[in-house]
Design brief:
This protein is an alpha/beta fold. It is 48% helix and 17% strand. The protein contains 11 helices and 6 strands. Strands 1, 2, 3, 4, 5 and 6 form a 6-stranded mixed sheet that branches. Strand 5, helix 3 and strand 6 form a beta-alpha-beta unit. Helix 2 crosses helix 3, helix 4 runs antiparallel to helix 5 and helix 9 packs across helix 10.
């Protein structure tokens, strides 16, 4: 009963931004939540028989940055992170994230950065709801795909390590085009039966190359890792909804998710006060 009430309160409360904020960040990600069998009927999943044990909950976070440290590394503003979560489609979820960013004062942000892991729905959320944002592919997801690509292109372990090091160095220097060209050159040496799968791996980098200018992001003092929302998936979602033996109905999981977003997004007291009219004891000036 309290979950829906908190959900309504989370939509309220505009942030009063008096001065333009340098950068607002938006990050989104998804994680599976174990569900009761009736919530999984007809859903495809990763089980050997093609069935599912979980349903994806999408989590978004909004935070700001106004400074860097002495070495130019970005510093997240303390207490600035808020969350929204949903089992809804990416279209509906994107609207929730956009509304949260609007509530936070995105209109006064000098810059907007959208960080994601490369999933197609992530960039669609950015395209539809944050068209002016600078989109950045999470650096560590890029590394995972790079390691996979190297192992697909080379068999000798020493060569794999050597090529990884070279390509990481190029990628860190805005040289992703060179990495793609080198991978395509090596692709021609592979047997025809292996080329299709490797072609798809190279395609990942071609699709995201404009979001992989990490030297540029570093020089501007931007975050280029989506660790904030990934940590949110563990703390907001995982620590409460993914414990051993848990199985959730969608309404039950949604209620708890709203409570967690309020609690870990520094908004619990604000929502509680509005729900319980806690300001009724505040002394008000007598009207003249």
């Amino acid at each position: 009963y309290s979950g829906p009430l908190i959900a309504q309160e989370l939509k309220q409360g505009r942030c009063h931004v008096e001065h333009p904020m340098p950068i607002m960040y938006v990050e989104v990600d998804g994680t599976g939540v174990p569900m009761v069998p009736q919530e999984l009927v007809g859903r495809k999943g990763k089980q050997p028989d093609g069935s599912a044990k979980t349903r994806e909950v999408k989590l978004g976070c909004v935070f700001t940055q106004t400074a860097t440290d002495e070495e130019g590394n970005p510093l997240r503003d303390p207490g600035s992170t808020t969350y929204v979560g949903s089992f809804e489609s990416s279209d509906s979820f994107g609207l929730k994230v956009r509304e949260e960013a609007r509530r936070r004062g995105i209109g006064k942000a000098a810059g907007i950065v959208f960080l994601g892991d490369g999933a197609a729905w992530v960039w669609e959320v950015a395209r539809l709801n944050f068209p002016t944002a600078l989109c950045i592919l999470d650096f560590y997801h890029a590394l995972e795909h790079l390691f996979e690509l190297c192992r697909s292109l080379y068999a000798d372990e020493k060569w794999i390590v050597r090529i990884q090091e070279q390509w990481i160095e190029r990628m860190e220097e805005d040289g992703i085009e060179e990495v793609i060209a080198s991978a395509r050159q090596r692709l021609q040496d592979l047997p025809p039966e292996l080329r299709n799968s490797v072609e798809k791996q190279i395609g990942y980098f071609e699709t995201n190359k404009d979001r992989m200018l990490y030297k540029t992001y570093r020089s501007k003092g931007y975050f280029y890792g989506s660790g904030v929302v990934e940590a949110g998936c563990r703390t907001v979602v995982g620590q409460r909804l993914k414990q051993s033996g848990m199985l959730w109905s969608r309404p039950g999981a949604e209620n708890v998710l709203e409570l967690r977003c309020a609690l870990l997004g520094n908004r619990w007291d604000e929502c509680w006060d509005r729900l319980h009219h806690s300001d009724y004891l505040n002394i008000r000036p007598v009207a003249c």
